């Protein structure tokens, strides 16, 4: 299959790219840096992406990262980090992809999982819940047998290590990547699902 992978150079995206390539898929690596530029916060760049890359079977978005922002953040803009890219950016991505994917294709988004309240995670939890609800509601509107899914990882082990925290509290990126790849194994129309890979601790980050 020909697959656009957004966020292909990040920790999770790189792991997904390796697994897709190993399965023999043609992977178009897209992101804010690299040969195929795209910025989820810029809808015009999404239009340019689909104008440049055609005959696509699936789109996977692993670029939807966020950060922990305290409820008492000094500004609304700082507190609502992630709204334009992670939430609205992935919504814009779906709305464009449905006009360009081949029949029976798939879009896989990334939200996140908080199993327990996390300080600084209130807005991230709102964004993740919004994405999960959007996928469930939008899936019934997709034409031509297209499929819409969302993967909801908790902490990525490598991200925790980069923050100086215990990676044992997270799930390795390669293990999370298996969830994305598994969703592509059988492209048949079905109801959307939210997938939560592994018993990792909660977070909003999916690099």
Which features would summarize this protein structure in a list?
alpha/beta; 207 residues; 7 strands; 17% strand; seven-stranded parallel β-sheet; globular; 36% helix; 7 helices
Describe the structure.
With 207 residues, the protein is of the alpha/beta class. It has seven helices and seven strands. α1 crosses α7 (173-183) and α4 (83-97) packs parallel to α5. The protein is globular and about 45 Å long. It starts with a strand and ends in a 12-residue tail after the last strand. Residues 188-193 and 199-207 have low confidence and may be disordered.
Number of strands: 7
Topology order in helix (H) and strand (E) letters: EHEEHEHHEHEHHE
Q: How far do the termini sit from each other?
A: 24 Å
Q: Which percent range fits the helix content?
A: 25-40%
Largest sheet: 7 strands, parallel
Can you tell me the residue ranges where pLDDT is under 50 for at least 5 consecutive residues? 188-193, 199-207
Question: What does the average pLDDT come to?
Answer: 83
Helix-and-strand structural type:
alpha/beta
Percent of residues in beta strands: 15-25%
Q: Which strand order do you get reading across the main beta sheet?
A: 3-2-1-4-5-6-7
Rg from alpha-carbon coordinates: 16 Å
Form type:
globular
Number of helices: 7
